[in-house]
Amino acid sequence: LYIEAANASPEQRIRLLEEAAEVAWSRVNPDASLPWLARLRDERPEDPELLGRLAEVHRRAGRFEAALRAYDEELELLIDSEQKYKLHVQRARLLERELHAPGRAISAYLQAAETADNDSETLAELDRLYDTMERPFERAKILEARVAKLDGAEGIELRQTLATLYCISLSKPELALPHLEANVAASVGNAAEELQYLGALDAALRASRRHDDWARIAERELELIESDEEIRDATPCEYRNFLREELARTCDVLLGAPD
């Protein structure tokens, strides 16, 4: 086939080389197709599909760095944004799962997110990796982007996660406030849920020394507790007393409004 291809016209040569690559892959092993794919590349140097096939051969053989180099060359030839996105994701998965390089995987996912205008799936992968690597600053930025794509009740869980990150890991409770307030607003109508998110907002306001806002939230907590018998029975008397006493102290000492 090699001799026949060398003496053939360009179209025939490509057809023969494709045939040889297919025979080598299917009847010998994928590695045997490498020299034929290399010859095909000489004939079609601008064809990204050939680089994808070369990458697959290297990946199957466990030559992951070689596969990455082929992916990188393929990226340079691709024009379509969707194809670029898929290849960035493919590179990220290879880096994380086969090369155990989460930092390099993050870079690939960031490129994918940029290509796909911060698609939800890629942001979720970045969120997971930043969490695993304990990088709260970067994770907060990704969570902000994820939260921005969700409205109302859809984003409650993510907003709570982001608020917890701000309050605990980053010690910036004031940044958690808009997210906690959004959760309270989204839970209105369900007294138990609203009380749960009011409690989180209560803690963040106290940590932020927002005494006037805290007093407003404490009053709402007491209102919910007293207006719902089931919630009232489930709430320890000590907590209710604490809220009343702390509210009175805050209004009297910190806000100067004893009435």
Q: Could you explain the architecture of this structure?
A:
79% of the residues lie in helices and 0% in strands. The protein has 15 helices and no strands. It is rod-shaped, with a radius of gyration of 30 Å.
Blueprint of the fold:
Elements: H1 2-6, H2 10-28, H3 34-43, H4 48-60, H5 64-77, H6 81-97, H7 102-115, H8 120-132, H9 136-148, H10 156-169, H11 173-187, H12 191-207, H13 211-227, H14 229-234, H15 237-254
Helix/strand structural class: mainly alpha
The count of strands amounts to 0
Low-pLDDT parts are none
Helicity range: over 70%
Integer-rounded radius of gyration: 30 Å
**CA(first)-CA(last) distance:** 98 Å
The overall pLDDT average reads 92
Dominant shape: rod-shaped
Q: How many helical elements?
A: 15
**Mind describing the biggest β-sheet?**
none
Q: Could you spell the SSE succession in H and E letters? A: HHHHHHHHHHHHHHH
Tell me what portion of residues adopts beta-strand conformation.
under 5%
Keywords:
rod-shaped; mainly alpha; 259 residues
Briefly summarize what is shown.
The chain is mainly α and 259 residues long. 79% of the residues lie in helices and 0% in strands. It has helices at 2-6, 10-28, 34-43, 48-60, 64-77, 81-97, 102-115, 120-132, 136-148, 156-169, 173-187, 191-207, 211-227, 229-234, 237-254.
